[in-house]
Amino acid sequence: MVVVENYNKTPPPNDGNRGAKGGWLSRIPTAYWVVGFIMLCMPLVVTPFILFQIFGWALILGMIALSLMFLGGLGGMVSLAQMTIAVCAGYMVAIFGDSAITSISLGLPWWLAVPIAIIVGTIFGTLTGAIAVRTEGIYTIMITLAIAAAFFYFTRQNYVIFNGFSGFNGVMPPVIFGIDWHNPTPFYYLVLFIATLAYLLVLYVSRSPFGLALQGVRDNSRRMAALGFNVTAHRIAAYTFASVIASVAGILLVWQNSQISPGTAGIGAAIDILIIAVVGGMRHPIGPFIGALIYVILRTFALDILVSFGMAGERFQLLIGIGFLIIVLWSSDGVLGIWRSWRERSSNINKLTGEKMDGQS
Amino acid sequence: MNRFIARHPVWSLIIIIAVAIFLVAVFAQWPKDIVAMFGKKKVFLHALFNGVTLGALYFLVASGFTLIFGLMKNVNMAHGSLYLLGGYVGYEVAEYTGWWPLSFVAAFLVVGVVGVLMQYFIFRRMEGEDLRQTLVSIGISIVFADLMLWAWGGDFYQILAPEWLSGPVVIPLVTAVKSSGTLVYLKYPVVRLAILFASIVVGILMWLTLNRTRIGMLVRAGVDDREMLTATGVRIQRVFLLVFGFGAGLAGIAGVVGGTFQSIAPGEDMRFLLASLVVVIVGGMGSIPGAALGALIIGVAEQFGSVYFPTYAVVLTFLIMVAVLAFKPQGLISSGR
Predict the structure, then answer these.
(1) For chain A, N or C: smaller number of CB within 10 Å?
(2) How many structural domains compose chain B?
(3) Per-residue pLDDT of chain A (361 residues; tens, 9 = 90+)
(4) Could you give the CA distance from residue B54 to residue B303 in angstroms, rounded to a whole number?
(5) Using a CB-CB distance cutoff of 8 angstroms, which residues of chain A are in contact with residue B146?
(6) A354: exposed, middle or buried (C-beta count within 10 Å: 0-12, 13-18, 19+)?
(7) Residue B158: inside a domain, yes or no?
(8) Local structure of residue B264 (DSSP, 8 states)
(9) Would the pTM count as exceeding 0.90?
(10) Residue B273, CA distances (Å) to A349, B81, B276, B310, B331 in order
């Protein structure tokens, strides 16, 4: 678990004035203000397409990868089933709520369908976790990958509930307060709000007693068990918490695409989430969002980039694969790790806290 | 054996009854009511034979995977890509030379060398960092998949078996009795039986190599305690290279086999990676007999599933995996270390 070590040793970036006295507002690091301001003003600057397709999608994928980062970074359990859990919740919204497949969809109002979807997604994620925690380390990846594959094949074959290969289309976000949440700007703000909430929640939980115990379990499960912690329960609870985030993100994903099909939860998609989390960095909750932004930009514009270099446009998987390989080979903690080791070399900010940063472990 | 019976009397009884029912089902003629319930005996026997031969193919893929994992603790997610590469190489060689056995040699050598290069240039540098190795191998598999798509396109390829292996052979198992009283015997493709035979031979050779030779002794010692083996002066890196090359080569051979009795196309890499994952999880990680047992179970389950409940055949294998995990997390035959 080298990728995910030292989470608690490294302070979050730009946390220098943590000890400053004053109101809680002044304790928020400057970077948060800057990023927050930029994100809030985004609709004024960019086109609806970029707002909806790039930032909306990146934030959603970032949330799914955030749930993986929570499990992997804090719990030391790398689960490839997070996309599956998200898609499971997405399916539930389509089944219980409205969609173009009226023969299956129950057409419940959104305030009923959404909680049901989150609950079902969470239960599914908890069950996945209960199976996965029977194994450790590298086995977890394999078992969750197998579960993801099973879900993919099952939804593709099942026509009674999941409508088989074609899945559901016409799944629209509800109209609340007279606002159509499928319009780019409202949808962007909705996703931004929920993603920020999820980010802060993960940050909060990582410093709560539960999060600290989880990190203890990650670092030395036997010692934690000897101290009287129920290791298995902590791990399963971590899965439950991560599933809630993934489920919410899955619902947003369905609303964004306005359709869902087994392909959304395919093996490639499951691995993409891992790529996003690893490329971004698993030591801090901001990592998955950075990774998701890079991934989405690459995914959207790779064709143009490749063509402009005189290569065939369909080689975009190659580009992603090589980029992923380079980052994994170079840095043990993705873009965040590279950024950290670069900052460490170019400045001496960290002498303030007296902590020695180790970019490589 | 006796100890097992003494310790688990109920389970032994269930197993004995199940084996007896199975043997009766294979050898006896099926009465009409049973045919009405389960379909023809021919279908059953075909599913059984297909399952066993598919299991043989899975064993070839998964044994290399489990060998690499057992020694190096490296979950090589690019194993499916090695399988696919073997299939393509075998196809090209068979097309050029028209000599089928040569494609096995070529696939083994080419894919084995690729495996050695992977271990030498990449995995050797991150020894002990198992998560990172897995991530790197996922990256490699993505790159390989796209490169192979580039080189061979999205078409299906089939490697043609030579004349003397094509066509069916009659197996002395009665499938039905005609109204005139003549017995109908099961006909089955020779090539599949040959593959089954070949993978049994490979399995036995592997077992002999591991248990009766010096190099096998080194591998077993390495699985047990790597550091101690290094301390005794063995150049463990060479053993690693050898095992990685051999495991990759096996995947290459399996690619030729898969290309002969199924077909090779993009996407097969993921299918066989998943199959080997499930096989080694069911059988027990790092154990060759476990891989054999797991491959047999998964192969048979997949074929019976596709005959008797076609919709959820794929899900069945995963259900088996979940059930095994729930009761024996270490797999049916754990290496016990």
Answers:
(1) C
(2) 1
(3) 344 444 444 444 444 444 444 566 667 777 777 777 777 777 767 777 777 778 888 888 888 999 988 888 888 888 888 899 998 888 888 888 777 777 777 777 777 888 888 899 899 999 888 888 877 767 788 788 888 888 888 888 777 777 777 778 777 777 777 677 777 778 888 888 888 888 888 888 888 888 888 888 888 888 888 888 888 888 898 899 999 999 999 888 888 888 888 878 788 788 888 888 888 878 788 888 888 888 888 777 777 777 777 666 667 777 778 888 888 777 767 777 777 777 777 665 555 555 555 544 4
(4) 8
(5) 315, 317-318, 321
(6) exposed
(7) yes
(8) B
(9) no
(10) 46, 8, 5, 22, 18
Residue B320 falls inside a structural domain: yes
Are B173 and B186 in contact by the 8 Å Cβ rule? The answer is: yes
User: What is the CATH number for B177?
Assistant: 1.10.3470
Tell me how far apart the alpha carbons of residues A91 and A86 are, in angstroms, rounded to a whole number. 9
Angstrom distance (rounded) from CA A359 to CA A5:
11
Residue A245 falls inside a structural domain: yes
The Cα–Cα gap between A321 and A277 comes to 14
CA distance B279 to B88: 24
The answer to whether A52 and A188 are in contact (CB under 8 A) is: yes
A168 sits in which H/E element: strand A168-169
CA distance A316 to chain B (A): 9
What is the C-alpha to C-alpha distance for residues A150 and A137, in angstroms, rounded to an integer? 21
Residue A39 included in any domain:
no
From the list A321, A329, A332, which residue is nearest B142 (CB)?
Answer: A321
| Three-class secondary structure of residue B175 per DSSP | strand
Chain A residue with minimum CA distance to B73 = A138
CATH number of A51's domain: 1.10.3470
pLDDT of residue A6: 41
Query: CA of A323: which chain B residue's CA is closest?
Result: B139
Q: What values do phi and psi take at A212, rounded to 5? A: -65, -40
**Structural domain span for residue B110:** 38-327
Answer whether residue B191 is part of any domain: yes
Quick check: is B11 in a domain?
no
By residue count, chain B amounts to 337
- For B157-174, write each residue's pLDDT tens digit: 887 777 777 777 777 666
The answer to whether A320 contacts chain B (CB < 8 Å) is yes
Q: Count Cβ–Cβ pairs < 8 Å, chain A vs chain B.
A: 109
DSSP assigned state of B157: B
How many domains, chain A? Answer: 1
The predicted complex's ipTM stands at: 0.72
Please say whether the beta carbons of A268 and B149 come within 8 A: no
Beta strand segments in chain B, E: 168-177, 183-189
Answer yes or no: are the C-beta atoms of B66 and B288 closer than 8 Å: yes
A120 is in which domain, residue-wise?
Answer: 2-9+46-352
pLDDT at A188: 84
Interface touch A271/B139, C-beta < 8 Å: no
Q: How many CB atoms lie within 10 A of CB B294?
A: 31
Q: Which of A7, A14, A1 is nearest to A337 (CA)?
A: A7
Does some domain include residue A24? no
Q: Which of B135, B270, B329 sits opposite A328 (nearest CB)?
A: B135
The residue that leads in pLDDT, A245 or B319, is: A245
What is the rounded CA–CA span in Å between residue A58 and residue A39? 13
pLDDT band at B35 (very low <50, low <70, confident <90, very high): low
Question: Which uninterrupted H or E stretch holds A259?
Answer: strand A259-260
